[in-house]
Design a protein that fits this description.
Pfam families: BTK, C2, PH, RasGAP. InterPro entries: C2_dom, C2_domain_sf, PH-like_dom_sf, PH_domain, Ras_GTPase, RASA3_PH, RasGAP_CS, RasGAP_dom. This is RASA3 protein. The protein has 18 helices and 20 strands. With 690 residues, it is an alpha+beta fold. The protein has four domains: 146 residues, Immunoglobulin-like (Sandwich); 174 residues, no CATH class; 176 residues, GTPase Activation - p120gap, domain 1 (GTPase Activation - p120GAP, domain 1), CATH 1.10.506.10; 136 residues, Pleckstrin-homology domain (PH domain)/Phosphotyrosine-binding domain (PTB) (PH-domain like). Strand 12 and strand 13 form a beta hairpin. Helix 3 packs antiparallel against helix 4, helix 15 crosses helix 17 and helix 16 runs antiparallel to helix 17.
């Protein structure tokens, strides 16, 4: 059994003012870690309008921050949603508690949607003399959903229809795209769709299809992927699921330092406190921005493969659509990785599990200034100073008006949008990822000896790894990326040379290379591993030493075709395995289709109207994207049939459940409103039949 809640924190009125200020935020808790809204500055009547999703399920399913296990579904009635209001304080003892609301879930089981105003209450162990109405009030909307998940075979028709969405032409006629069209909020559809497609390994083709369709509808390259479309929400959700570990290893160390050290970084002359120096603050902020910018632009090899594959598709679609704009291939990717991933994580680290609590006001201000600068650096805008409405930000940004920053961003975007893709040749021009002089030696071509080591110019693109005598010469050797089976360090004992690594190819061919230093060796190993990590024939074991004088120096095996003796270290470090229940996600999608059945039927009418009438579109149908009315109608018919079948199964399940249980038993005690509602519905059905 799966039970879903979403709680929308709407607004508050009349919150208390503490020490002359009120910067409120709310935390929402359900049997686990709390979720937090953004801080609203200088108001005791804040408007939040933020939604938080929670799930309760049996302990066999996966565990997430918003996902809690219970042994007995009846325990749900004993649970409660708690909303705490806090004032973000810069005092050492932490934020001030303003009041709380506790809402038992047993009341929500009587109604699918519940919205009301509540007086905030003091804590149970708080100041008992304080009157409840002195704490202000909170408007909260909570929606309760309870899903019964059947075995996998029940969902086959609907699941298969959803999973083939990427192959439907046009994609707007697919079941997944239709779900996005009928849902009230795109995120509502994106959450189960992304999880389902990730589980079955279809997320990249699906997002590629809907992104390509969106790009074709975009007229101005400057507005590409700027709206809250199904594409944007699906990519956001994918980055949240697959990229959380990436954020942890990239940003957490320096975010922790910023929160602990408390350097003053205020650069607005109006906000400077007594004793603060503007130039010192600018230098503190510049150092932080420089460090974060560097860790981000050097993190390409850690970017999860699924994100790289998606960015590749975005880049390719944008480049084909706007061939006259050379920057759009970069902005299509930066609009997600910088604007919707890194910048928000820096701005609100607590929402991305980078910090346990909302930072204090001074640290929050520092992170805001860093986030703004990083976002602008990543945008590659031609007139960056114009992006700031504040003159002090434009002045500060002059520090970064150097070509090296733009080059670093482009190199980073090149790497994360060209790695891990099987069909590299589909891009018109290869992307240069790294080049430079190194010393090489190929095994088995000539007699062993130092004279076989030669200095060559190496060049790596997303298509191939080559070397030539000098830069610009014709390649002497070319290794296609798909032929790189492993890239590993080589023990110094092999040739008595430091900083060596090996590129292993089919048929046991190995290219031995010496880099200029240990840093260069690591960089080459990381980037070669990154671009080849999705090759189907990648090795799992290798020989850390060379084959010399009739045996492998590492394991002493005499046959040159002996399998490796040491596990490969490259692997897929950026691929985080997600434990997702595909049946539960399909059940959630079924519930959404069932909830929005009137819209599905309205969309059917719109298809009929478009098929027979070629004039101006009726206003009530204009909200739907229907590129092919005939194909869309076919899919809608299959969706409605699939939903109808599952509705019958659920109805039968409820009948069987109530038939086997007596009223007054432990399962259905006297006063069980769900049982009474069922009895009343059955009576009405019987009366209607008679």
């Amino acid at each position: 059994v799966c039970i879903f809640f979403f709680s929308r924190v709407l607004e508050c009125q009349g919150l208390p003012i503490v020490n002359g200020q009120c910067d409120p935020y709310a935390t929402v808790t359900l049997a686990g870690p709390s979720r937090q809204t953004k801080v609203k500055k200088k108001t005791n009547n804040p408007h939040f309008d933020e939604v938080f999703y929670f799930e309760v399920t049996r302990p066999s399913s996966y565990n997430k921050k918003s996902h809690f296990d219970i042994e007995d579904v009846d325990e749900v009635d004993k649970m409660e949603i708690r909303v705490d209001l806090w004032n973000a304080s810069n005092l050492k003892f932490g934020d001030e508690f303003l009041g709380e609301l506790r809402l038992p879930l047993k009341f929500l089981r009587q109604s699918s949607s519940y919205e009301a105003w509540y007086f905030l209450q003091p804590r149970d162990n708080g100041n008992k003399s304080l009157k409840p109405d002195d704490l202000g009030s909170l408007r909260l909307n909570v929606v309760y959903t309870e899903d019964h998940v059947f075995s996998s075979d029940y969902y086959s028709p609907l699941r298969d229809l959803l999973l083939k969405s990427a192959d439907v032409e046009p994609v707007s006629a697919s079941a997944a795209h239709i779900l996005g069209e009928v849902c009230r909020e795109k995120q509502e559809a994106a959450i189960p769709l992304v999880r389902l497609f990730l589980h079955y390994g279809r997320i990249v083709p699906f997002i590629s299809a809907i992104a390509n369709a969106e790009v074709k509808r975009t007229q101005d390259p400057n507005t590409i992927f700027r709206g809250n479309s199904l594409t944007s929400k699906c990519i956001d959700e994918t980055m949240k699921l697959a990229g959380m570990h990436y954020l942890q290893v990239t940003l957490k160390p320096i975010i922790d330092e910023i929160c602990q050290v408390h350097k003053t970084c205020e650069i607005d002359p109006v906000k400077l406190k007594d004793g603060e120096n503007l130039e010192n603050n600018r230098e503190n902020l510049r150092q932080y921005v420089d460090r974060i910018f560097t860790v981000i632009t050097k993190s390409g090899v850690s970017c999860p493969t699924v994100m790289c594959d998606i960015f590749f598709s975005l880049r390719e679609s944008a480049a084909k659509r706007f061939q006259g704009d050379l920057d759009v291939r970069y902005t299509a990717v930066s609009s997600f990785i910088f604007l919707r991933f890194f910048a928000p994580a820096i701005l609100s680290p607590n929402l991305f599990q980078l910090t346990p609590h909302h930072p204090d006001p001074q640290t929050s201000r520092t992170l805001t200034l860093i986030s703004k600068t990083i976002q602008t650096l990543g945008s590659l805008s031609k007139s960056k100073s114009a992006n700031f409405k504040e003159s002090y930000m434009a002045t500060f940004y002059d520090y970064f008006n150097e070509q090296k920053y733009a080059d670093a961003v482009k190199n980073f975007l090149d790497l994360i949008s060209s790695s891990g893709r099987k069909d590299h040749k589909s891009i018109e021009q290869p992307i240069l990822l790294k080049e430079g002089f190194m010393i090489k030696r190929a095994q088995g071509r000539k007699r062993f000896g130092m004279k076989n080591f030669k200095k060559r110019w190496f060049r790596l693109t997303n298509h191939e790894f080559t070397y030539q005598k000098s830069k610009g010469d014709h390649p002497l050797c070319s290794i296609p990326i798909e032929n790189i089976l492993a890239v590993e360090r080589l023990e110094e004992e092999s040739f008595k040379m430091k900083n060596m690594f090996q590129v292993i190819q089919p048929e046991r061919r190995v290219l031995y290379i010496q880099a200029n230093n240990c840093v260069e060796a690591k960089d080459w190993i990381d980037i070669l591993t990154k671009v080849s990590q999705c090759n189907k024939k990648r090795l799992t074991v290798y020989h850390p030493s060379a084959y010399l004088n009739g045996h492998w120096l590492c394991c002493k095996a005499t046959a040159d075709n002996t399998p490796g003796c040491t596990p490969c270290t490259g692997g897929l470090p950026a691929n985080i395995q997600l434990d997702i229940d595909g049946d539960r996600e399909t059940e959630r999608i079924y519930s959404l289709f069932s909830l929005y059945m009137p819209k599905l039927e309205k969309m059917q009418e719109a298809c009929g109207s478009k098929s027979v009438y070629d004039g101006p579109e009726e206003e009530e149908y204009s909200t739907f994207i229907i590129d092919d009315p005939k194909e869309t109608y076919k899919t809608l018919k299959l969706i409605i049939e699939g939903v109808g079948t599952l509705e019958q199964e659920h109805a039968q399940y409820k009948r069987d459940k109530f038939k086997k249980t007596k009223y007054g038993s432990q399962e259905h005690p006297i006063g069980d409103k769900s049982f009474q509602t069922y009895i009343r519905q059955q009576s009405e059905i019987s009366a209607h039949s008679i």
